[in-house]
Structure formats: structure tokens, C-alpha cells
Amino acid sequence: MAEIINMPRLSDTMEEGTVASWLKKVGDKVSEGDILAEIETDKATMEFESFHEGTLLHIGVNEGETTKVDSLLAIIGEKGEDISGLLKGTGSTPKTEVKETAKEVKKETAVPKSEVTIPEGVTVVTMPRLSDTMEEGTVAAWLKKVGDKVNEGEILAEIETDKATMEFESFQSGTLLYIGINKGESAKIDSLLAIIGPAGTDVSNIAANFSVVTDVVETKAPVKAEESPIQDAPKQEVKAAVVQNAVQTHSNGRLYISPLAKKMADEKGINLSQVVGSGENGRIVKRDVENFTPVATSAASVGKFVATGQEDFDEKPNSQMRKVIAKRLAESKFTAPHYYLNVEFDMDNAIAFRNQYNSIPDTKISFNDMVVKACALALKQHPQVNSQWFADKMRLNNHVHIGVAVAVEDGLVVPVVKFANEQSLPQIGAAVKDFAGRARNKKLTPAEMEGSTFTVSNLGMFGIESFTSIINQPNSAILSVGNIVEKPVVKNGQIVVGNTMKLSLACDHRTVDGATGAQFLQTLKGYIENPVTMLV
Q: In this predicted model, what pLDDT tens digit does every residue of 287-334 receive, in sequence order?
């Protein structure tokens, strides 16, 4: 069945978008996650990826053309499928059909079920897309409460994305009339975040129409929003009713249990017949499963000693960052054919060079800074390693932007040192140190984590001797750097004490052949084992 793709809302203030370029043409095969087009918004030009698989059957907005949000952008379906019914008449899909299709396919965004008149001066604020990979956000904190005066430019809330926690400022002035997502709650892009308008304005009808679809998604209740008999109820009443409908109520002596409690019991292997419910009508709820203590089996009953105890574990929701890390790394590992080239470099000259360099007053560089600089210079000589793979083309980058992996509490971020080959060692060191500090405080901006052409991951400071990494797509390679080890080595036929460092280059075989990767490592070896050549 053909899927209708609309012009997405890529920022909270976006009303229309311009197609900067199409990366697919009519007739091309489209896989989920493929970049369909680059769309220019009111804030930036962003890549727009497909959430569907099939063949691109129709393009509704040509390159350079501008159209409103939710207008027909493209149609994806089976090859040769008849879409004349969708294009009949004006050549675009009626708005009502688009809404029904979007709701039927994904049920992800909070879309009003009926046309709602928005009073003059009232603005509906939705969960913004604060990074190109963001699919949902979590409200880390509200800096305003209902009834507060809001001025344009004031920080409304702090929102946790897949990459960082960012301040979200208001683009409107007025009174905060309604909060749709409480602190700590997560919601999809375009879900109702807040309503701002003149003080005293009644926005209950707007809130109710936006909240029903969102609540069904949150509670995972098997009740379609359009079938609910409480569509016009306030949000609190709607949510309570949806939850009630989601409860598995049984009669004739069967159990009353919530879906969450049943899932937890299944995971823990708990016999529900032994659990006493504390909910309404004796319903078993989450706390009953959490607080349940299993009955110990006596030794006499089995004729031998039985160890008793209680299995215990802690759970915490996956952060937005962790979700996207899992998704992106899985996509990279299972789509890019990885292979690995392992080398070991002599670091005696590098140690002497660093000691001499750091003897200069107010100057301090690390071995990682030297590796980043050496990679940048080597990449200029081997542009194939500095390339990126796309479904229909290969991009050989003439610029060198090196991503430096930084470990943070929730996972890993990769800030980017732009034009690294043109920067001095102290400049690279200062940039990496600044990025690392702000990354751990979740203060990096999306722009500072985009555009890498190559990535360096260094676990040497943790005592790791060697390891391999997963490529940070769409890049073609990533370098894994181990620690420097003092050990016996052979020099000029004699066994002496030396210092070596192991490195592993992971390559995408679609863009980098084995010989190409090996030649890059030879050039890199020359710079690292003779670091003075990086200054020439």
C-alpha cells in the first residue's frame, strides 16, 4: 500500500520548507533510514530520512520549490503501484486523506482528530526536532509554570534529545496556559508541549484534541483514539479512561492485572496466583509485583538443601541518547561491511617530541592531539579514506572534519574538530578539551556534533591495549587507539626497552579497499613515529 510522505515540521517555528536537493529520484528503491531529501527550514538545512521502505513513486515538491508543512512531499509504495487515486484532481493529496494515512501507518504524532478553532493570539508549541536524528524528546525541566508570563526569547524548558540536553526558548510572548508533557516524560516529535496565549484564555478544547492520540501511544492501550467515547473529555479524564480500558479485567475467578504488572511478572518469573493485588477490585498493579517476595521451597519438600533468596535488579528507562546510539550503531554494523587493519607503532620519538613540546611555557598537548593531527594530514593524502557512502553515490571530501569520541554518562558523543589539518597541535588540544568538558555537561550543540568525515576513538587512557570500533556512518572509517606500552622490542638486531602503541582501523569495504586502508596507515605511521614532520 502506498505511503504518503508530507513536508515534515523540522523546527517548532517551521511553517514551510524548501527542498534543497533530492537524494532519490522517481523509480529508486528506498530503504527505511535512507536520506530522501535535504530540506531547508527557517533555521537550517537538514537531511530528511525515510521511515518507509519501497519504491519512490512520486515527487510532489521539486528541488528549489517551497511548500507548507504537511503538504504532499512524496509517495512511496510498491513498484508499479497505481497511485492515480491519490493524485486525482489537483495532483495533491487532500488534507483529510493525509491525516488518515499518517495515523494509520505510524500513530506517532499528536494530531488533532477534528478541526479546532485556535483563538487569536494563542500559539500551540509542539515538541521540536532539536537534532537531525531526534525522534522523541524528554522534558528535563520546566523553567516556567502554568500562569507565568513568557517573553519571546525566554527559556521555556530544558529538553533531553538523543545527543544533549538543550535549552528550548520561546518564540512567542504571552502567558503559559497549558503544559502537555510533564518533567521526566517523553514524547514524539510534534506532540503537544505547551500552549501560550493571552491570560485567561480557555484552551481546554485544544488540549483535549491533541492529548488523546498522545495518551494512547504512551499507555500502549489497545483502544483506537477515534473509537474512544471520551474524545471531548479533559486530558486527565481521557488518560484515566484509556488506562482503564487497557487493564485486562477478567471475571469468573480470573485475575485482574495491569499490562505493565503482567509484563514485569513474566520477566521475573513470578507466579501471579501468589500475588495479592492492591489496586481497585483487587487488581494486581506494578507495585504489587515490585514488592512481591516469593515463597521459599522447604528443604524437606525436595529431600535436600535448597538455597533461598530473591533475585534483584534495577531498571532505568533508556535515555534518548542511548536509544539513538543503539539504533545508529546497529544500522552501521549490519549495513556497512566492516573489516579491520591492525598496526603497532614505535612511540619513542613521539614521547620525546611531546616532552619537548610541552616544555614550552603555557603549552600542553596530549598523544591524542598528535593522533588527530596526524590523521588529518594523512587523510588529505588519501581522500578515499576520507569519503562517505550514500545509497546512490560516494562522496570524496576535500575538507577534513575529525570526530573525536567522548564518553559521557549516558553513552558516547562525537564532537567534530573542523578543518583539523589546518589547525595547530595546541589548537586541536584546546578544542578537544573544551568539547569533552561541555559534552559531559550536555552543553554541546547539534552543529558541533555534525559533519565528521573521519572518527578517532581513544581508550588508551583507560589502559586498553587494543580494540575495534563500529564506523560512525556515513563515514568510511574509524581509528581505534590503544595505550602506550613499555616492553622489549628489537632494534638494530638488539632487544631493548621500547614503547609501542596499537591501533586498529575499521573500514567500510564499499568505499575503502584493503590496500587503500593499508596505504593510509603507512602515511599515518610516518607522522606518528616522526612527529616533527607534522610541523613541516
A: 888 888 876 544 444 455 566 677 888 888 887 777 888 888 898 999
Q: Encode pLDDT of 24-61 as tens digits.
A: 999 999 988 788 898 887 656 778 888 788 999 999 99
Would residue 140 count as lying in a domain? yes
The catalytically annotated residue of 202, 250, 392, 509 is 509
- Answering whether pTM is above 0.70, one says no
Q: Report, as an integer, the average pLDDT of 235-262.
A: 45
Q: Which of 51, 78, 105 is the last residue of a domain?
A: 105
pLDDT at 255: 63
* Same domain flag for 237 and 93: no
Question: Which residues does residue 481 pair with via DSSP β-bridges, in sequence order?
Answer: 458, 503
Strand partners, 54: 30
Instruction: Mark whether 150 and 70 lie in a shared domain.
Output: no
CA–CA distance, 397 with 375 (Å, rounded to integer): 14
247: how many CB neighbours lie within 10 A of its CB? 18
Question: 52 an active-site residue?
Answer: no
Confidence (pLDDT) at 252: 41
Query: Has residue 421 been placed in a domain?
Result: yes
Which residues form the domain of 172? 123-245
Separation of CA 259 from chain center: 28
Peptide bond into 474 cis (omega under 30): yes
What is the per-residue pLDDT across 177-193, written as a single tens digit (0 to 9) for each?
A: 999 999 989 989 888 99
Q: Is 250 an annotated catalytic residue? A: no
Closest to 472 (Cα-Cα) out of 399, 384, 404: 404
Does pLDDT of 256 surpass 80? Answer: no
Q: Which three cell numbers stand for residue 270?
A: 513470578
User: For strand 454-458 and strand 477-491, is the pairing parallel, antiparallel, or unpaired?
Assistant: parallel
Residue type, 216: V
For 352-360, the CB contacts below 8 A with 24+ separation are: 353/531, 353/532, 354/531, 357/425
What is the rounded radius of gyration, in angstroms, for the C-alpha atoms of the chain? 28
